[in-house]
Specification:
162 residues, mainly alpha, elongated
Length: 162
C-alpha cells in the first residue's frame, strides 16, 4: 500500500515540476487548440538553443583560441576560421540552426490565432513569462514587429471566438 501512495506522490511531483518548467502556461491540453502545441514547440526549440550555447561554452574552454576563430556565418565567407577545429565548426552550425528554429517557432506563435479562450490565455501567459525571465522575442520581421503581430493576431482570434 505504501508503494502505491509513494508512486502517486511521485507522479504528482513530476506533474507539478513539469508544469512549473513549462511556465504553468499549459494547463490541460485541449485537442481543439493548436496554441498548446505551438508553445511546446517553442519550448523545445528554446531548450535546444540553450543546449547549443552550453556546448559552445564548453568548447571555448577545450579548444585553443587559434582553432576557434569563426563566430558568425559571415566569417566563413571572409575566410575566417578555415582551420578551426571541426568540433567548433559543428557546434556553431548547430547553434545557428537552433537560432533559426527558435526564431521560426517564435514567429509562428506571433502569427497564431488560437481557437479557444484557454489557448489565447496560454499564449499570453507564455509570452509574458518568457519575457519576465529576461528572454526576448525576435526582432522585427518586415514591417511588423513580433509584439505587434502577436497582439494583432490574438485580437483577431478573440473576435472569431466571440
Amino acid at each position: 500500500m505504501s508503494k502505491a501512495i509513494c508512486s502517486c506522490s511521485k507522479l504528482t511531483r513530476r506533474a507539478a515540476i513539469g508544469a512549473a518548467l513549462a511556465g504553468a502556461a499549459t494547463p490541460a491540453l485541449p485537442a481543439s487548440d493548436a496554441a498548446f502545441a505551438l508553445i511546446a514547440t517553442h519550448q523545445k526549440a528554446f531548450a535546444r538553443l540553450n543546449e547549443t550555447i552550453a556546448d559552445i561554452a564548453r568548447l571555448e574552454r577545450a579548444i585553443p583560441e587559434d582553432r576557434r576563430q569563426e563566430w558568425a556565418p559571415e566569417d566563413r565567407d571572409e575566410g575566417i576560421g578555415l582551420s578551426d577545429d571541426p568540433r567548433w565548426t559543428a557546434a556553431l552550425d548547430a547553434h545557428n540552426a537552433a537560432i533559426d528554429a527558435e526564431s521560426g517557432a517564435a514567429w509562428v506563435i506571433a502569427h497564431a490565432q488560437p481557437a479557444t479562450i484557454m489557448g489565447t490565455v496560454a499564449l499570453l501567459r507564455y509570452a509574458a513569462d518568457y519575457e519576465q525571465r529576461g528572454d526576448t522575442w525576435p526582432d522585427a520581421e518586415g514591417e511588423e514587429g513580433w509584439h505587434a503581430a502577436f497582439h494583432r493576431n490574438l485580437a483577431a482570434a478573440l473576435k472569431k471566438i466571440g
